[in-house]
Amino acid sequence: MRRPKLPQAIKTEVTQKCRRRCCICFGLNRDSGIKKGQFAHLDHDPTNNSPDNVVFLCLNHHDEYDGKTSQSASITKEEISRYRDELYRFVSDEFEAEQATAAGKEVTPSYWSFKRGPSKIEIENALDFHTGPHRTRSALSLLDSGPKSMNEFQAKIPGDPDWISVIVTALVKDQLAFGPSGDKKQFRISQKGERTLRILDAIPDFIKNAWWEANWKITR
To answer: Among 79, 99, 156, 205, which is least packed, fewest CB within 10 Å?
Structure first.
């Protein structure tokens, strides 16, 4: 049976969001260079043409993920989806920075502009954050997927609404998030907040569990 064609509208939407960058190259190596590539369906279903299910991959990564041998590949569709979201934010931030520079405005460096690895202090701070209240981690994780209003936090995180407000406000105080300003009524994750989550992503679970156990024993 002939493989159905991907609608041009979906191709246009995806390429506009990624600017022909491969999300796996970006997710694994922070490689934001323009690539020759192809479109891949995250669920390997060529009839599911939802924009959330279609990604742009370089030729090598497309063959690795979308080929018949992809069942044995270590990378998962959940990983690619996460890398795709990170790439889209990077492209959006890059465009906004270009617009701001053209308008003569001061530009705040994005998280992705930092090419260095985390320092020992950053790693320890990230681990301390990991061992902190789980609702605080939940709040920052929600911001990682996009801006949120206080009502959205209170609807998604269980607990007293006033206590949830305290948690979100603390994220702003700790510079892990930006509070509402001007016409924007939502909270946004900061560069520090993104970096903290990415550092935690890279730390093996056994180290995070050991850090949690050590802190728990100290405070028990």
So the answer is: 205
